[in-house]
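Bench notes, afternoon.
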Amino acid sequence: MERALTSPAVLLATALLASCGTAPPAAPESQAAGPTSELSRYLPLEHDTVLAFDTTIEESGETGVLMLRVARKSGNLVELGVGGRVQRLELLPGAIRNLDGGFLLKAPLTVGATWPGMAGIVRVTTTDKRVEVPAGRFEGCVETVEEKTLPGGFKRITTDFCPGVGIVVLDVEAAAGADQARETARLRSRSKRVDLMVEVPK
């Protein structure tokens, strides 16, 4: 059985996240076009942002770090990289679409709203959740749950989106027969990418 956070679901945790509860800087005007302001509030994206998440595997207690990078391309395309893989998103009026199928977010963000996701049907379960992670404490967060029934099992992805921050928690559960797995990623920090290969002017 595949580990939950090494599945494609981990690529959902690819949003611009501000650490310690502070909102990210405004995007340049050339990058401002995209989804509605409601979605931008809960999933801001900024070019060359590196995100660090603490990960935990429930069954073994094993911990690690998940690193993600946001690359804002021309137009309304965004590339999200993790572990050498790239996930591509398209920013549309009222939706953030995964180019491999399904949506990451779709307006309106109201309790009970649903849309097709990458792995199953996504449902908004709450819009006023309080979340505490290593990066800080956040309120008024939107929680979505994406579920898919598998032969003899299931897969469930719970994501917390916080205002002015983005994704702060990604919790993936999966079961197949007697085998079960659960892995959680919790936001630790957000920073700009540093290119150590850039030459310093003499």
